[in-house]
Automatic annotation (TrEMBL):
Coiled-coil regions listed in the entry: 150-177
InterPro entries reported for this sequence: Bact_response_regulator, CheY-like_superfamily, HalX_domain, Sig_transdc_resp-reg_receiver
Keyword field: Coiled coil, Phosphoprotein
Residues recorded as bearing 4-aspartylphosphate in the entry: D58
Taxonomic source organism: Halolamina salina
PANTHER family associated with the record: REGULATORY PROTEIN, STRESS RESPONSE REGULATOR PROTEIN 1
Pfam families, A to Z: HalX, Response_reg
Domain Response regulatory: 11-120
Domain of life, source organism: Archaea
Listed name of the protein: Response regulator
Length: 191
């Protein structure tokens, strides 16, 4: 039996040209995630597939830079969250770069794990928001086309409204925990 989307182990790809840094990130990343590593952008692109949830990407690498890897990722079916890591002070050029988090080196164990965890949580929230909007649309369609007494007697409609209520509770709790930047990022992902 194949794992469901929610039960599979999240995959984190670390792309870092310095061996010691790459090995440290590999050791630091939470044991609940599958960690893949690549020493350069070309290797990263060769092992990037739809199973990768988060890419921890060094910005300054020989050969393909982090920016080059980001650009190449746009042409693939994989759509992971990206943590851009760099020892360089960010310039205004980052405005056009499609990453989800930007960390300045050196980072510590907690900072790296918390950033990856936040991005994985955001993916989960995206999925829940999308499901919520799909179900609300279905409910609105059913309510506009069917009399109340027909809907109230149908088990499928009741299951639909129950699931909407569950999602509203979960999303309400999750959204209350977000700071304003995370909330804006979440909405940008969904719309």
């Amino acid at each position: 039996m194949a794992p469901t989307e929610s039960s599979r182990t999240p995959v984190v790809l670390v792309v870092e040209d310095e061996y010691d840094v790459r090995a440290t990130y590999d050791l630091w990343l939470d044991d609940e995630w599958e960690v893949r590593t690549a020493a350069d952008g070309k290797t990263a692109l060769s092992i990037l597939d739809p199973a990768v949830d988060v890419v921890v990407l060094d910005r300054m690498m020989p050969g393909l830079s982090g920016r080059d890897v980001l650009d190449a990722m746009q042409d693939r079916q994989a759509d992971p969250r990206v943590v851009m890591m760099t020892a360089v002070t960010p310039d205004l050029d980052i405005v056009e770069m499609p990453f989800d988090a930007y960390l300045s080196k050196p980072v510590d164990h907690d900072q790296l794990n918390e950033t990856v965890r936040t991005l994985l949580d955001r993916d989960k929230q995206d999925d829940q928001l999308r499901e919520y909007y799909r179900l609300v649309e279905k409910r609105a369609t059913l309510e506009s086309e069917n009399p109340d007494h027909v809907l109230s007697e149908d088990e499928r409609y009741q299951q639909l409204t129950d699931r909407i209520a569950e999602l509203e509770d979960v999303l309400s709790d999750d959204l209350n925990d977000l700071d304003s930047d995370e909330f804006v990022a979440l909405l940008d992902d969904v719309v």
